[in-house]
Every structure is written in C-alpha cells, then in structure tokens.
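Technical note accompanying the year-one report. For the benefit of new consortium partners, we illustrate the data format agreed upon in the data management plan: each record pairs a sequence with a structure-token string. No post-processing was applied to the example shown here.
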Amino acid sequence: MRSNLIITAVVTLLVSCISPKETAQGLNSNQTNITNYTIGFYNVENLFDTENDPSINDDEFTENGEKEWNQERYNDKLNKISEVIGAIPANGLPIAFGLCEVENGKVVADLIKADGLKSGNYDLVHYDSQDERGIDNAFIYRKDILKVISSKAISPDITIDGVEDQTRDILYIKTAFKKSNQEVHFFVNHFPSRGGGQEKSEPKRLAVAKVLTEAIAEIRFIDENAAIIIVGDFNDMPDNRSMREVLGACPVFEDCYLSNLSYPFHINKQGTYNYRGEWNVLDQIIVSKPLTDSSNNLYIKDNEAKIMNAAFVMYTSEDGTTTPNRTYGGKNYYGGFSDHLATYSILSIKN
C-alpha cells in the first residue's frame, strides 16, 4: 500500500512539472499545422502612367489630357491602391492579387514598390493585351512564398455579327508554394463592359466566358483535383448567363465543379461596384471544387469571399449613402482610390 502511494506521488509530481505548452505539444503531436494566406482581386480604376503611348488611346491620362493626369496624382494613386491591398485583414500581406485596369507592366512595378506593398517582396506577371484603351490584367505575388511555373495571356476571339471586337486578355498563371510545391492555378479576368446595354453587350461576355471555360477544362482534364482560383471584374452578376450557364459557377451549396464564393453578396444585395445607387457584384472570386473541401491540404477558409469596404475607402454623401471613393467621376478629379472595391478570400494550407 505504501509503495503504491509513493508511485502515485511521483507520477503527480512529474505531470505537474510539465508546462501547458509542453503538454499540448506532446499530446497533440499529430495535430495539423494550418497557415492562412490571403488572395484577392482589385479593379484599380485606370492606373495609367503619365507618358503618352502612341500605340494606345491613353491621351486623357497625360498632363495635357482632359483629366490633367500628372506625376503627383499618379504617385498618390499608387500609394492609395497599395494602402488598400496592404490593409486587408490577413496574416501578413496577401500572397497573390489579381489586378485589372492597369496600363502596362511599369505601373504594376511602381505599385509593388509603393508604401503599402514594398515590404512584401512582390513580383509581377503582366502581358500587353489587345484592348484599344491599353488597359490590361496583371498578377502580383509574394516571391518568398510562391513561385510562378508558367504564365500566358489568352486572347479571346470575339466576333459578333461579323464584327471583330478587341478586349482584355485572360491572364493565366500556374504557381506553386515554394515550401510544399502545392500547385495553384490562377485566372485573372476583365470581361467586356456593358457599354451599349446588357442585351447588346452580353454576347461578348458569353464569348469570353466560353474561352475561360475551355482553359479550365484543359487543366481539369489533366488533374481533376487541381486547385483553380478565378478572379476578375466580370461585368456580369453571379446569376447572369456568362457566369451560371457558360462558366457553370454556382453557389457553394450547389454541387458544381466551380463555386462562386461571391454569390452571397448578390443574394444579400451587397456588392463591389455601385451603379446609380444599386450595388453590383461585378468583382468575384470563383474556385474549383477541391478548394471547398477543408479535408484537403489546400482549401478556402469558411468557403467565403469578403469585400474590402473599410471606412477609409468609402465616400459618404450628405444623405448618408456610401459608395466607393473613386479617383475620377468623368473629368472631375476626386482623388480617391477606385470606383470598385477589392475582394479577397483566405487560402488555408496544411503544413
């Protein structure tokens, strides 16, 4: 009996000497370590440099142009866009961000050197597109975390009623995490505008959506479990034909290969772009089905997208209505950020 009491006392003493941290490490040694990263998209509203490029229609964004665009305004725009991306709630700066409405690679290079992003060790992917105004898509990424395996610009061939139309390229980037070599495929989009009205312009977006669908199908054919992230300004709502019928992007609760994480905003009448007092969900994040399953090594946390609508990026009118604080309204310079709001998701990876 006495010996049993002695053994019990010794065991109690040993256990009491182990710190809570050591106990957690010992008892949960098989527990998965999860790291969260942010990815997203931002239509940056005409990020032009101040130089006149004779090959594109950029005259209004020069010092002598109608918008009186100068170096001071350009530098202010760079700092404000970098501030928005840098201020997104995250575990450090975002690891990957799609951009649209950038004039060229130079403005993107200037952007990642701006105050809000310069500590992120970013690199960029950009191709000049066939767009008449010279606005392109781009992709920035933290090169200490991701590596680019390959990239290309996919040029949609849009011919409506025998008339060929030029539009932005679809930007494709195949990346991998440097630490785990886990691959992630990104598509950055800026679908044709609604100029001329929804009915007249819709065939253009349907045509681009078809090209995007075919590019995704090529990846899926090789790897059904591929991690695919599609971001962009689609100039259509989540329930429009280009998104639902052609691309086949559905709400997460439906059984589709592509899940539109931005669909709840549409249902709840929220959005990333305000047109005549109504919110539109033009900027969306769509992912392949494997990324909606948290049992996989790589997945979207909570299967949701979020909108960067912090007070400092918004303009509040006298009647209390809030809209994105934009850079220009027609020829009027407001000195804001963008007429769109950025959208983002949290990408979780098991280490």
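Partners are asked to follow this layout when depositing records. The longest helix spans residues 198-222.
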